[in-house]
Each structure stands twice: as C-alpha cells, then as structure tokens.
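Dear U.,

Please find below the material for section 3 of the report. The protein was modelled together with zinc ion; I have listed the sequence and SMILES used, followed by the predicted complex structure.
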Amino acid sequence: MPVPRPEELLIEIAACGVCRTDLHVADGDIAARYPVVPGHEIVGRVSAIGAAVQGFAIGNRVGVPWLGHSCGQCRYCRDGQENLCDAPEFTGCTRDGGFASHMVADARFCFAIPAAFGDIEAAPLLCAGLIGWRALRLAGEGRSIGLYGFGAAAHILAQIAVWQGRSVHGFTRPGDEEGQAFARSLGCCWAGGSDTLPPEPLDAALLFAPVGALVPAALKAVRKGGRVVCAGIHMSDIPAFPYADLWGERSILSVANLTREDGTSFFDVAVRAGVRTVTRSFPLNRANEAMAMLRDGRIEGAAVLVPPSRSS
Ligand SMILES: [Zn+2]
Ligand SMILES: [Zn+2]
C-alpha cells in the first residue's frame, strides 16, 4: 500500500481506462520508468490525504490524468504550457498508475469529476476525452473534420464535434464495417475506410491511430490551409510524400500531453454536450486480455479495468 507524501492523495481506485499509450508503455515504445504500474485514466475516492494538501476530503471522488506533475518553473510551465514541461511526471509511465487497487497522486493534478458520469463511464474521459479535446481545439474552428482511428478518443470527440455543429467524418481500418456503423451511430455524417477520401475536403483531420501512413493520407483529404493533427504519443514512421500534398498552407502538428486547463474546460463541455461513453469493463486480473483486445482493434469504445473489491 503506497503512503502519500505531503502533497499527495492516497486513492482507492474504482475504475481505470485502458489507453493505447498503456500498450506503448508495455512495449517499451516510449521512455517510461520501469518497473511501473500502467494506467492513466483513473477514477477513485480519496482514502488518505498528505499533510500539505488543501481542498480535498476523505471520500471525495477524483480523476487522475496522464499529466501527474509539472515542475512549475521551466519556460513552458511559466508560459501556461505545462503540457510541454521540461521535467514532467506522467501517470502510469514515470509514476505508478491505475492498474491497481490503490495509488498515490499529486493532489494539484487531480480533477473533480462531474456527477453526470458514473465511475466506469468517466474513466475514458481522463485521457481519450481530454487529450482528444486538446487535439480538437488545435484543429481550429473548421466546420468539416475527420477522425482517423475510431476508438476511445474518436467516439468521445465525435459527440462533442457534432454537438458543436460540425460535420464529422469517421475513418476506420479499411473494411471495418462495424466500426463505420459505430461512427455513424454517434452522429458522423460519413464513415469509411482510411484508404478512401471523404465526400468533401476536410478543414482538419485528427489522427488517433498510431499509423504514420495516415499522415500523407490525411493530407490528401484536407483542403488548402487545412490541418492534420497527430494526437498519439507514438506513431510508426511517416512515409515520404510529395511536397505538393503539403503545399497550399496545409500543416501537420502534434498534440503532446495536457494542461490542467484542458481538463477543466473538457469536463465542462462534456457535460454540456451530453457525452456518453461506450465502455467494456474487465476485472483488473484480466488486464492483459483487455490490452490484447485493444491492440487488435476488438474494443468498441473504451476498455475499463475494475479492481476486485468494486466488481464483486
Ligand atoms: Zn515545467
Ligand atoms: Zn492515454
């Protein structure tokens, strides 16, 4: 049982989402501190409070996201870009995360979760939702957007973008007709394989699949001045493509991590948009099975792990 330091909370975990980044941590694709407990989409209740923590009480429901700590002193933290901090800590990567019954978290980086969401349905909001939200904001105000990789993040972002009045196009693996039907059921005006072009040029494309070949594919789908936003933490190499596909002031950018402001603004919009997450829950001792199913694209919506005391 971890013991909270003065600035930390001890949290009894109620649910923890499984994110593609957990696969990258398990595979050694990104710089983690090993051994480490994965999991960064955590919903739980405060069971002990460090001496220096203010504003929390025993029993409060909290959410713990990917950004576990930032230094507060580097140029990025001072400029309001704590997502780019030079000395960050990441939950389930450099700090132990939520594939567990309990964990400790820096209280300053925990969120309150709106009562509209149950524990399990809230879990995917903590990363798929709020890093997806950061990606959507970086995509700009365009009316027509495309979501490549229709998993946990896209299924949340589609609902928000439709609520905002945008035309949303869902791109799945070629031939994944179930995934395309799922995208249409969430309000997408069009859904198809990532090897096809949408019926109209996109103002922006958001890439949630870790497949570098989607970057030139998405560039072909966006209009002049359009943006391609890469939202994953890791991606296979991007193949060479003709400069003409980038020409016309198209741009490619990446989204890294989140700020606490992304979290608070996201939860506000998620409530107003009436977001409903589609989840498939697994007992914690079936974490490997959940990760294997996510890897194979066999999860509709988001996988969520539930510790034994909660699932019995
Ligand atoms: Zn910093
Ligand atoms: Zn994540």
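For the text of the report, you could mention the following: The first strand starts at residue 8 and ends at 18.

Regards,
Y.
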